[in-house]
Amino acid sequence: MGDGEENRRITLAEVAQQAGVSLSTVSKVLNGRQDVSSATRVKVERLLETHSYRRTTRVAREAPLIELVFHELDSVWSMELIRGVENLAKAHQASVVLTESGTRHAPAPDWIEGVLQRRPIGVVLVFSSLPDAVKRQLDARSIPFVIVDPAGDPEPDVPSVGSANWSGGVAATRHLIDLGHRRIGIITGPEDMLCSLARLDGYRSALNMAGLAHDPSLVRFGDFHVEGGYARAMELLQLPDRPTAVFAGSDLQALGVMEAARVRGLRVPEDLSVVGYDDVMIARWSSPPLTTIHQPLREMGEEAVQMLLRLRAGEPSVTRMELATSLVVRKSTAPPAARNP
Amino acid sequence: MGDGEENRRITLAEVAQQAGVSLSTVSKVLNGRQDVSSATRVKVERLLETHSYRRTTRVAREAPLIELVFHELDSVWSMELIRGVENLAKAHQASVVLTESGTRHAPAPDWIEGVLQRRPIGVVLVFSSLPDAVKRQLDARSIPFVIVDPAGDPEPDVPSVGSANWSGGVAATRHLIDLGHRRIGIITGPEDMLCSLARLDGYRSALNMAGLAHDPSLVRFGDFHVEGGYARAMELLQLPDRPTAVFAGSDLQALGVMEAARVRGLRVPEDLSVVGYDDVMIARWSSPPLTTIHQPLREMGEEAVQMLLRLRAGEPSVTRMELATSLVVRKSTAPPAARNP
């Protein structure tokens, strides 16, 4: 790999000389920049073609990158989203750059520097919003971006993919009502997230539609984690007239509810029915396997990449897409046991 | 951002001219390649310094990439490894390119093309081996690589990070013996993986050290998945003299054992103790929370990046590193219940 092989190829300096332009102009043409006259562009491109110039420096074009940014990689559904994005990226010969940055609300400021240097074909952000400065920087480089927002709180001017939270809340609650439950508790997500409120509203509407009263003492806000599910379930199970079923608002919270039941000496589903939300892998693996609302996380990742590619191609694209949720019945739900008065 | 700003800076062609070397030599110096005499290197570097050359084309250095390749992203411990690699990459201002490719044994052939184009600062592979052709291609580009190999089956000439499987098997079994168990079943991993054999040998040695006989009817090979754990546990629990404890060889298999116990009407830990292996998040979240062997997956990812950076810097580095495993006692193990003869 000495100078021998290199010298057989034309150098960019030689192209510049033959075209009568500066080396930086040749470089701009190679990198597809717009601030070069079209006459110059054509001249340079013909020279490169004639000499079969191998674009060893065009990293961004030959090995395209899609950026995927999370604020937190340890939530169990990150992997499902990653797989969706990775699947579709691979189908388009692109690789995925994975970054953990910032808070639930926005990536950290230094993140954007790396993105601008890597020149990805697009950015998928798992955040509920995006600072205006970041939007402007990406827009200025024509780098399209899409928010995947399981929290359901997108800004109207940002393309985003979510799922149907309200319908999910209705389906979970209706399933429990159909089994015969009348005292149904809910542990939804944090109070400041739209998805929590949408699922809670779905729960209330399902009760209303069935002509059942809504008892505010059976409603709790959680944190989407196991510990929160456990703590709130312990409160619900200590009520004088405890619920016979709990809609847990996330699979992790449902695991916490099952552990609370175990500690209180209650069997699931014989003494307490539990419904989760998300349908991540652990829902299948818990003991008993968890009845839950399937949120199509992998498809949401795939859809986000599809949106990116449409945006990049300048095709018209919807701004907000909500994928359907669906009930998956496993073994954590059953009719309520007959109780002594 | 027109030509004005660009022209105020020295071009690489001018540096080459002033140094009396070819443009490709200047480029080699910039890219840190070794096939340039040190006199030439010093001359070129001084010129670049004098003219405050801004390395706008050095994408690889300004936004460095670390490649992380899995054959399968859906195993629960992928995320822990990803977080380890991502943590340490971020500490070195590098980004992580995540790829799913090939089989358990090696990445797919097309994967290497993308890597050579992206010119990462190094490659972390979660595979048990690497084809010679891939090794040669990476070596020729001076791209260092490290295998993270939880299966414990590394090739001697490839730098790799693993963990202490035999010691883990001893610790799990000894914990059950110390609780008073005498009939201890084991469901280890697949028969063709070294880590399975190491954990099984650890189990046998712990029994021997305690003066207990080793009963081959209590030994099963699994698949490291929940379903395999469930099926093998059903076999063990149907034995006339069933085990009072099972060492499950992976946390997923342990979940399968717990579900088998539930289906057979046995309580964990009152009627059956269960020990997992890995200590992934679900071990904390299962009901009851799982006693398990902690495999330091995140640290293994971090260590792999450290090894890459040492290799890249030309520092001496060990070829094989095994991190320690440790017992984490939670609530799935207890002394055996007194049984009627």
Helical content of chain A (DSSP H or I, runs of 4+): 40-55%
Largest interface (C-beta under 8 Å): A-B, 58 and 59 residues
Structurally, how many domains make up the residues of chain A? 3
Strand content of chain A: 15-25%
* CATH-defined fold name of the largest domain in chain A: Rossmann fold
SSE class of chain A: alpha/beta
- Based on the structure given, which CATH architecture of the largest domain in chain A is correct? 3-Layer(aba) Sandwich
Number of strands of chain A: 12
Q: What is the CATH superfamily label of the largest domain in chain A?
A: Response regulator
Q: What's the CATH class of the largest domain in chain A, please?
A: Alpha Beta
Strand count, sense and barrel status of the largest sheet of chain A are: 6 strands, parallel
Oligomer: homodimer
Overall shape of chain A: elongated
Query: On the 0-100 scale, what is the average pLDDT of chain A?
Result: 86
Strand order of the largest sheet of chain A: 2-1-3-4-5-11
- Total helix count of chain A? 14
Description:
- Chains A, B: This is LacI family DNA-binding transcriptional regulator.
- Two copies of one chain form a homodimer.
- Chain A has helices spanning 3-8, 12-19, 23-30, 38-50, 59-62, 78-91, 111-118, 132-140, 165-178, 194-209, 226-237, 251-263, 281-285, 297-312; strands at residues 65-70, 95-100, 122-126, 145-148, 160-163, 184-188, 219-221, 245-247, 273-278, 291-294, 320-323, 326-328.
- Helices cover 43% and strands 16% of the residues of chain A.
- The longest helix of chain A is centred in the middle third of the chain and has 16 residues, at 194-209.
- The relative contact order of chain A is 0.12.
- With 341 residues, the first copy, chain A, is of the alpha/beta class.
- Chain A is built from 14 helices and twelve strands.
- In chain A, the strands form two sheets. A six-stranded parallel sheet of chain A has the order 2-1-3-4-5-11, with helices on both faces.
- Strand 2 of chain A pairs antiparallel with strand 2 (95-100) of chain B, so a sheet runs across the interface.
